[in-house]
Here is the input.
Amino acid sequence: MAFIAISYKVRTGHEEEIADIFSERNFKRVDSAQYRDDQGRAAGRNVSTGLFIRGEFMTRVVQFEGDLRQIGPHMGAQEGVKEAERRLSPYLQVPRDTQTVEGFREYFQNALMQCVFQESRAERSAQLAAWTYRVTPGHDDALGEVFEKAQGALFDGPAGPLLASAAFVKDDYLVWAVQYDGELDPVVRQLTGSGVAAQTEEGLLPYLADRREATGPEGFGAATMRRLQMLSADVS
Here is the structure.
């Protein structure tokens, strides 16, 4: 299993309208988490997905297994996804065609963030949380090294609620996503108490567009992105 992240730039001031689009009341889940290739053969499945927003930036983190190339066409063929994308369109900074499978495939490729780090101790669905930072573009490799240095041995010690950690970059945004069991507060305590959060943010400082985005241990938990949606293939 692996994680990917997809980026959106949205107009600020419309967070509640966007949240309503993806609410349990309005969002129609996909017909199947399984996806197939052009010949109709099984190609993998989406395991879990979380949608997060903060300011103008929104990201969807997806845990999947199988052929990454087939996720875009699979999602683009889902009526519920098309309807959500149609309703989201007025709130996007840059319009895009997501009403056809071909258009959604192109959007998916353009919106895909670069994964610079990924570690896990379990391969199953669980809760997701995310933080985002504005960074100066062009430092993808260096950002990956920051996470490797701070988190490369994250799962070598005693097991805690944290199951996985991943970092993604696109243009001037970095997303740090974590997967965990239970509630978020124990994860925050694990990351701050172990020094991992502080070491990660200290390493990020030279690359941040605004150094004030490094919250420190006291503000780390409150700085999580708002989660608008959490879906799992294991939950009907």
